[in-house]
User: Which sequence fits this backbone?
């Protein structure tokens, strides 16, 4: 246990020294502020940019609009940057050979993977909470949130999908031992999910639902129970990839 | 024997890098492992550390069988890779602390052991992060981390190859000092390094061990040999001396003569005078290890 | 003019944190660019311009792609 914590501490130090903590705090708080800001400012901007005299019948923005921005920006910008930031966790060590000494000192190979996963998990949680809490606070301050359904559960879906993507990246990054390996695997995985999503019947189980359905959950168009199977499948896939990474790394030639 | 390697064969695809390697390393010795670049030295070391799987054969370290991947035998081993890589943002002290935590060293021992080792490798005064280190400093830190958990076996892969003469001398001194508490197994393609500190030497050539013995025994093989050159051609001199019983042969325009005792030497000198052979130069046959290697490779 | 001021006050809860983050980040990045004069590509002037004048994205690009390696080697 103490060697697990020791390695985790090393991961933490590394993330701080390589400015990952700074970037995460910054990007995700800016994202949190931007979501309600964009919604709030859009009508004013429209008025200013439209030619004089044009009559606009824009409905006043609501809490729903603020959350729609959240579901647009957080997965597109936030998740993308997060994956980019944490896509070299394994390849950097494997390319340089920094793990060799620690492994020959008796560091368990599974410790390496689980500690790195835990660190990515922590950062993703931090990133998610930052954006979510800031967007939530602004939205609650400016608008009436009682019209929005399942605020927390819908956001939870996106959070779980992000974790799944991070685990897939970790696997690809370990398997191919190169920075682009992890990214490529993740991109391929997402494209595959989108292709599957072309068939409407896949909506009952496709984990991609965790990403695309939450906006409809807010308005009640998608019932909570419909998310159960995609959620279970996402968690299951996540564990398969995590175990796959551990098993692969246990037998990796260094 | 702290290490025994039995019939180890290692193939990369169709290429056989190690063929039936057998090696036994006795305790508290410095074991030199020589061979040209690409002879398979690093491969054998990685197999000993469980970093690569062997194709066939077994390796035992301190009574524990080495398995590929997770191996318990690593608890007895300290390893210095040919190019040790550290986390550049740590200082030497912090890095050794991380290593101590990973090897489950009791907390109260840590500080003292780390300072002891930094003293040994001469890094106790250095407070800057590792990213500012020179090759030699990294190599010395590498030895410190390898010795941290008082291993029964210290494996060093080409520890001196990339260093300047001062750095090399420092490493050799540290390895010599380490001998008192551990067994040192180090590879090199610089024969004079092996000659300076080794008790035993093994040579790997094209995947097989071509000789393995105590250094002194290897030296004896060519000991008492003297190199003569004469004012006349060496062939002529040999024909004039052919009736003598000494073991003689020609090597690169010089006559090598085996003269085992002082009497023999005196006697040989008299013979030379009798035959009017004028010596141009004479010196003992000293290129020990290199000579042995060249002979074996012939 | 009056309406502009009203607008500004209305958006103050957004603007204050954004400006604080942007200015803080810009100062931090400028210090980093000056104190670590090794970059994967580009030169000091280029990176100073980028982190100062491209809001948020500039420093982001600098820390992800432009910053030299930790071991201080020149690329």
Assistant:
């Amino acid at each position: 246990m103490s060697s697990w914590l020791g390695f985790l501490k090393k991961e933490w130090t590394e993330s701080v020294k390589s400015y990952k903590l700074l970037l995460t705090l910054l990007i995700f708080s800016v994202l949190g502020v931007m979501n309600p800001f964009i919604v709030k400012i859009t009508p004013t901007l429209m008025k200013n940019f439209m030619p004089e005299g044009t009559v606009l019948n824009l409905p006043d923005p609501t809490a729903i609009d603020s959350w729609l921005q959240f579901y647009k920006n957080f997965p597109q910008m936030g998740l993308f940057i997060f994956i980019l930031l944490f896509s070299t966790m394994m390849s950097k060590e494997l390319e340089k050979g920094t793990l060799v000494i620690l492994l020959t000192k008796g560091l368990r190979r599974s410790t390496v993977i689980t500690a790195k996963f835990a660190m990515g998990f922590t950062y993703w949680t931090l990133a998610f909470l930052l954006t979510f809490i800031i967007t939530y606070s602004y939205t609650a301050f400016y608008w009436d949130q009682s019209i929005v359904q399942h605020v927390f559960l819908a956001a939870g879906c996106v959070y779980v999908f992000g974790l799944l993507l991070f685990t897939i990246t970790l696997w690809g990054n370990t398997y191919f031992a190169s920075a682009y390996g992890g990214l490529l695997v993740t991109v391929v995985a997402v494209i595959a999910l989108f292709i599957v999503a072309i068939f409407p019947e896949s909506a009952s189980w496709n984990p991609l639902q965790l990403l695309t359905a939450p906006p409809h959950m807010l308005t009640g168009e998608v019932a909570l129970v419909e998310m159960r199977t995609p959620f279970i499948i996402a968690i299951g896939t996540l564990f398969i990839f995590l175990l796959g990474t551990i098993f692969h790394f246990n037998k990796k030639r260094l | 024997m702290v290490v025994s390697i039995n019939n180890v064969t290692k193939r990369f695809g169709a290429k056989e890098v190690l063929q039936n390697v057998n090696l036994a390393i006795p305790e508290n010795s410095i074991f030199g492992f020589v061979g040209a670049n690409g002879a398979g030295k690093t491969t054998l070391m990685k197999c000993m550390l469980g970093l690569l799987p062997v194709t066939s054969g077994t390796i035992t370290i301190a009574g524990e069988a080495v398995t590929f991947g997770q191996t318990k035998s690593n608890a007895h081993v300290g390893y210095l890779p040919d190019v040790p890589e550290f986390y550049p943002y740590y200082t030497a002290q912090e890095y050794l602390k991380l290593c101590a935590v990973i090897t489950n060293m009791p907390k109260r021992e840590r500080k003292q052991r780390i300072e002891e080792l930094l003293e040994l490798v001469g890094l106790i005064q250095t407070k800057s992060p590792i990213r500012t280190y020179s090759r030699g400093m990294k190599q010395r830190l590498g030895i410190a981390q390898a010795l941290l958990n008082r291993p029964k076996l210290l494996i060093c892969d080409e520890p001196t190859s990339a260093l300047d003469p001062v750095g090399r001398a420092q490493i050799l001194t540290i390895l010599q000092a380490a001998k008192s508490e551990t067994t040192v197994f180090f590879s090199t393609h610089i024969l004079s390094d092996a000659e300076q500190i080794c008790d035993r030497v093994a040579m790997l050539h094209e995947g097989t061990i071509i000789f393995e013995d105590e250094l002194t025994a290897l030296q004896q093989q060519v000991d008492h040999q003297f190199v003569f050159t004469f004012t006349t051609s060496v062939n002529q001199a040999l024909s004039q001396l052919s009736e003598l019983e000494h073991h003689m042969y020609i090597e690169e325009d010089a006559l090598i003569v085996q003269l085992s005792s002082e009497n023999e030497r005196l006697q040989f000198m008299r013979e030379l005078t009798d035959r009017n052979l004028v010596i141009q130069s004479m010196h003992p046959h000293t290129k020990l290890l290199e000579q042995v290697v060249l002979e074996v490779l012939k | 003019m009056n309406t502009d001021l009203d607008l500004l006050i209305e958006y103050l809860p957004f603007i204050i944190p954004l400006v604080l983050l942007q200015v803080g980040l810009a100062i931090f990045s400028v210090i980093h660019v000056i104190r670590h004069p090794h970059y994967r590509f580009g030169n000091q002037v280029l990176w100073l311009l980028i982190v100062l004048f491209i809001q948020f994205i500039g420093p982001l690009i600098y820390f992800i792609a432009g910053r030299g390696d930790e071991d201080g080697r020149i690329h």
Notes: Chain A has a mean pLDDT of 90. The two ends of chain A are 24 Å apart (CA to CA). The CA atoms of residues 164 and 236 of chain A lie 9 Å apart.
